[in-house]
């Protein structure tokens, strides 16, 4: 398109560009509009929306359950305590029939209305607890003795940057049908965070969500 507008095929077209700037402007304006629209289309196609079990877009601020792919093993995600004290940690309900507790998702862009793949998001349980900490997720660790990084509560929603680096997670596609959670925040240009998937470990019969580089936790979104 630019070649057709700015490199005409004969001298007559060239003289028209030189002597009639108004006509040239009329050509440039539509071209500018086309360029802007093309950019918007490319940007929109690059952002892939996350879908729930009904095939609908997962919306910001709307409550959803995270239902595991393997429901014969355990249920959805909940808040529980690993050591009998606060803050609470993110684990799995023991029964596969238990959907767990509802969650909301807040993208790093506060104006976003939908949740997209590979975008930094805050995740928050929409439940009351006995602890004073928030129910926003954050990654903590390494745990002394095990070296594990656990997903716990007490995070901060919004305010992207170095001070909230451990509060940001991402949703990725998994096996074409399900999703997985990962930790690799991009809210700090000078930071070098850990990067990997979130998976499940079993400790004393209870299943906990942890940072794991080799065993993701596949799931789907069920609207609450």
UniProtKB/TrEMBL annotation:
> Annotated Gene Ontology MF terms?
endopeptidase inhibitor activity
SUPFAM superfamilies per UniProt: STI-like
In terms of PROSITE patterns, this protein maps to: SOYBEAN_KUNITZ
User: From what superkingdom does this record's organism come?
Assistant: Eukaryota
Q: What species is given as this protein's source? A: Dioscorea zingiberensis
Protein name per its UniProtKB record: Uncharacterized protein
């Amino acid at each position: 398109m630019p070649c057709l507008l700015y490199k005409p095929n004969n001298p007559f077209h060239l003289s028209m560009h030189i002597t009639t700037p108004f006509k040239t402007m009329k050509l440039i304006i539509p071209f500018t509009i086309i360029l802007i629209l093309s950019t918007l289309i490319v940007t929109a196609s690059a952002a892939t929306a996350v879908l729930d079990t009904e095939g609908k877009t997962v919306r910001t601020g709307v409550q959803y359950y995270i239902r595991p792919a393997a429901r014969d093993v355990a249920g959805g995600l909940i808040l529980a305590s690993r050591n009998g004290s606060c803050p609470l940690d993110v684990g799995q309900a023991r029964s596969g029939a238990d959907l767990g507790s509802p969650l909301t998702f807040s993208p790093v862009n506060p104006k976003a209305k939908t949740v997209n793949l590979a975008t930094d998001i805050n995740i928050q349980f929409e439940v009351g607890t006995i602890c004073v900490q928030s129910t926003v997720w954050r990654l903590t660790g390494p745990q002394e003795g095990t070296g594990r990084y656990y997903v716990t509560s007490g995070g901060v929603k919004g305010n992207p940057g170095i001070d909230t680096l451990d509060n940001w997670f991402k949703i990725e596609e998994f096996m074409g049908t399900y999703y997985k959670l990962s930790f690799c925040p991009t809210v700090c240009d000078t930071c070098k965070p850990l990067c990997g998937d979130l998976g499940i470990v079993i400790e004393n019969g209870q299943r906990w969500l942890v940072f794991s580089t080799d065993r993701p936790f596949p799931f789907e979104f069920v609207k609450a």
